[in-house]
Specification:
- The protein is an all-alpha fold.
- The protein is 61% helix and 0% strand.
- It has one domain.
- It contains 16 helices and no strands.
- The chain starts with 13 loop residues before the first helix and ends in a 6-residue tail after the last helix.
- The N terminus is likely disordered.
Length: 320
C-alpha cells in the first residue's frame, strides 16, 4: 500500500506516554462507570425507542461522497457543532433536534450522540455527581479549581437529564451507528475508534481514514484519534503512518484544534478530560494544544508533533 502519511521516527517521550496513559485510564473509567455490560432498560430523552440496528449495515452515505461534498457537509455541520459547544441547556438542545434526529438527519443524530456522551455520567446519578463534585472541592487538589469548574459546567448544562433517560453506552453507540449509516463522517470515525467499524474490512478502514483527512472536518479528526494511537500499533499498513503511538493520537487532536475544533479551557474536549478523569491543566487559561505541549511532550517530541500535524493539515504524503 502507498504511504498514507509520513511519520518521524523519533521516540515518544515518557511525558507523552504518561498523558496518554491517563487519557486511556479515563476511557476505561468512563466505560466502567456507565456499566458497559449491565445497562439500564432503554429509554429516550424524547421517550421514543430508537430503531432496530440488527439489519445489515448499508454502504455509508459519506462513502459515496466526493471530497468536495464531504467538506461541504462538514461546513454545514459547523453550526450544529457550535450550538452543542455553547448551549447552556443540552437537554433543550436534544429536544430541539428531535424532529431532525427522527427524520434521519446525520448531523442531528451525531450531535445528539455527543450530548448523550457528554451528559452520561451526570444523568446516571445527578445527586451522586453533585456530591462527588463537592467532595473533590474539599480535597483541594493541585488541579482542583479546574476540575471543580469543569464538573460544575457539566452539571449546569446537563441538569435536566435524569437516570430514566438512559444515556447508556449501548444507547450512545446505537445513535452513532444510525448517524454513520445516515452519512456522518465523524460518527463513522467514532465507530472505528470503538473497534466496531461500520464495515469490517481493511479496504473500508483505509478509505475511511483517507476521507477523514480529505474532509478537514475537526469533529472527524477528534472522533478518529483514539483509533490512531496505540490500538493501531503494528497495523500501519492500513491505518496509515500517522498511527500506532501515543504521539500520533495527540497529533490528530492537535490538528483538529487547528482546524477549528473548540479546544479552549471551557470546550468539550478539555471539560471531558478534566471533569471525568481529573486530567486538568493547572493553568485554567490553557487550551488543549498548550496543555499537551506543557504537560505531555518533550522538546524533541514537540518537533515530531509539529511535522505530523502539518502532514495531516496540508496533505504532505497523503494518497491522491
Amino acid at each position: 500500500m502507498p504511504r498514507l502519511l509520513a511519520r518521524p521516527s523519533s521516540p515518544v517521550s515518557a511525558r507523552t506516554l504518561l498523558l496518554l496513559a491517563m487519557i486511556g485510564l479515563l476511557a476505561l473509567l468512563l466505560l466502567w462507570k456507565r456499566g458497559w455490560e449491565h445497562a439500564a432498560p432503554a429509554g429516550t430523552v424524547g421517550r421514543q425507542q430508537a430503531p432496530s440496528l440488527d439489519s445489515p449495515s448499508p454502504l455509508p452515505v459519506a462513502d459515496r461522497r466526493s471530497p468536495g461534498m464531504a467538506r461541504a457537509a462538514a461546513r454545514g455541520a459547523a453550526t450544529l457543532v457550535g450550538e452543542f459547544e455553547t448551549a447552556p441547556d443540552l437537554y433543550a438542545l436534544a429536544q430541539r433536534l428531535a424532529a431532525r434526529e427522527h427524520a434521519g438527519d446525520p448531523q442531528a443524530l451525531w450531535i445528539v450522540s455527543r450530548i448523550y456522551d457528554y451528559c452520561a455520567a451526570f444523568a446516571a446519578d445527578p445527586a451522586g455527581y453533585s456530591r462527588d463534585t463537592r467532595t473533590l472541592a474539599e480535597l483541594r487538589l493541585a488541579s482542583g479549581a479546574s476540575m471543580l469548574a469543569a464538573r460544575e459546567r457539566v452539571g449546569r448544562r446537563c441538569a435536566r437529564f435524569v437516570p430514566g433517560d438512559d444515556l447508556s453506552p449501548q444507547r450512545i453507540d446505537g445513535k452513532r451507528r444510525q448517524a454513520a449509516e445516515a452519512g456522518s463522517l465523524a460518527a463513522e470515525a467514532s465507530l472505528l475508534a470503538l473497534g466496531r467499524p461500520l464495515i469490517d474490512s481493511e479496504e473500508y478502514i483505509r478509505r475511511l481514514i483517507e476521507r477523514v483527512v480529505e474532509s478537514q472536518d475537526p469533529e472527524a479528526y477528534v472522533a478518529i484519534s483514539p483509533a490512531m494511537g496505540l490500538p493501531a500499533s503494528g497495523q500501519e499498513a492500513y491505518f496509515g503512518e500517522i498511527s500506532g503511538t501515543p504521539l500520533t493520537e495527540l497529533s490528530w487532536l492537535v490538528a483538529a484544534c487547528r482546524l477549528g475544533q473548540e479546544c479552549g479551557p471551557g470546550g468539550t474536549l478539555m471539560t471531558t478530560y478534566c471533569a471525568a478523569g481529573g486530567i486538568c491543566s493547572k493553568d485554567d487559561s490553557q487550551d488543549f494544544e498548550a496543555f499537551v505541549r506543557d504537560a505531555g511532550v518533550s522538546r524533541q517530541s514537540a518537533e515530531d508533533l509539529n511535522v505530523m500535524v502539518d502532514d495531516l493539515l496540508y496533505g504532505t504524503g497523503v494518497m491522491k
